[in-house]
Amino acid sequence: MNTPVNRLTIALSVMAVINLFMLMVLNIPFDWYLLPVSVSGVMSVYQLLYLLHITKQNGLRLPMVFYFYCTIWFGCYFAPLLHFALNFWLIFNASLMLPQHWEPYVFIIGILNAVGLVIFILAYRYFYSTSKPGKKVYLLLSSTKLNYVYLLCLISFLFQMFIYSRLGGISGFISTYEARGEDQGFAGFGILFIISEFFPIALIFLFYVNAMRNAALQKGSAIAIFLVILFAACIFFGGLRGSRSNTVLTILHACMIMHYFIRKFKVREMVIGTMLLVGFMYVYKFYKQGGSEAVSAYTQGTLDESEEKYNFDIFEMLLTDFARGDIQPYLVYRYENSNYQPKMGATYPGGFVHFFPSFIIDKESVTTKKTAATELMYNYNGEVMGFYTTRIFGLLGEYILNFGYYTAFLVFLPLAFFMAKLDKWVYSLTPGDVRNFIVPLWILFVIFLFNADLDNAIFFFMKRMLMVIVMLWMVSAKFIMRPAANKEIDHES
From which domain of life does this come (predicted)? Predict the structure, then answer.
């Protein structure tokens, strides 16, 4: 029976087994940091079990907060243990003076995360219970409104062709990417990329709408053919500028749309799809690090894969992309060993600066995350040093840059408000509401959010969500719903 005691017992047992394995087999240090880190692990597993139980009991899809707890479990519990097990500490920053012992600083971050998670759980339940569900429903009543989507596809295509023409065709585009360290590369193309790379997302929407009405498109073969076409579109529309996430996130969006609303994938299909994505990421690293010549050499079997820049470690990818288990403790270490002055929130407005042309705002005079972080990490002004750090610190890390680490757990409070409002809105969507299309994007956003800085979160929203919101608004008819037919989670049960 799924009771609170059973859930707690399972959570404690899982953490105990993992901790013992890490201590006895992988020889991680036995120290006080294990206590707060394990508390975060137990709390997140408990919440995951609770949400799995209550959604299954009520026939509901998993809420957004479920994916947030998955991120918390990995980032706040498992990742710190992996860092110790692999001795993986800021390996990309050889010029930094690292602490001899990481345990005290991981302990402090662990305390902040554990306290913050308690605040999050309590605040989320309060905000969820006091939030009102959405009152509108967006319906696609006329196929003629899909012409707006075709128009957006055309505009996106024309923008992409304009970019290629400006850079000398596809070969010139690739050359620009390969020479990115020697000149400005794609500087000034940001807004153009947002529009030009929208094409694959619009393509997913068109398939989604048609598959909901046409049983032939719901077959596995039709979905497989579409995913191949989509992959080609992803490469053509943005895949050649060195961002593998641009392709991976779009494919994941499509797969979630298929799985949730069109046809559930079998476990075997999920495994095959995961292997294909990992294979793509493996091959793409050659293009990312060595350009088209490296890919050509790899396909011909003449590439020296032993070169350090071509190394592909799945744990390295997980620890650098899905956690901040070394950089956040390092910020605490630098606070204790520098004269850094907190920026008192100045980096947050700086997060919006990237989206304004330089003739509107003097970007050099604005305090941003990278200027503050460079000052803290290197104890120098970036302008004097001639470079700025490009590290990502996560929401907790950016709070530390602004206000110090003593109250950094407070960052969980606005997160709880956001997650509660988002879940209440998602559960208010009816099955026919076209805004269901954006739900997988919100899932990806939630997974991405905790480990992102504000400017990264804004860019993700602008790049992947804003135009989708505009598209859904254009194609749908809006109606006011009568109160309450939808089922949702009752957190009091």
Answer: Bacteria
Q: Are residues 349 and 461 in the same domain?
A: yes
Structural domain boundaries enclosing 273? 156-316
In this structure, are 493 and 380 located in the same domain? yes
pLDDT tens figures, 204-215:
999 999 998 888
Classify residue 144: in a domain, yes or no.
no
Q: How many Cβ atoms sit within 10 Å of the Cβ of residue 92? A: 9
Is 80 exceeded by the pLDDT of residue 294? no
Which of these, 332, 313, 391, 319, lies nearest to 83 by C-alpha position? Answer: 319
Q: Is residue 136 part of a domain?
A: no
Q: Would 139 be classed as within a structural domain?
A: no
How far apart are the C-alpha atoms of 278 and 273, rounded to whole Å? 9
Domain count, the chain: 2
pLDDT tens, 216-240?
A: 999 989 999 999 999 999 999 888 8
- pTM beyond 0.85: the answer is yes
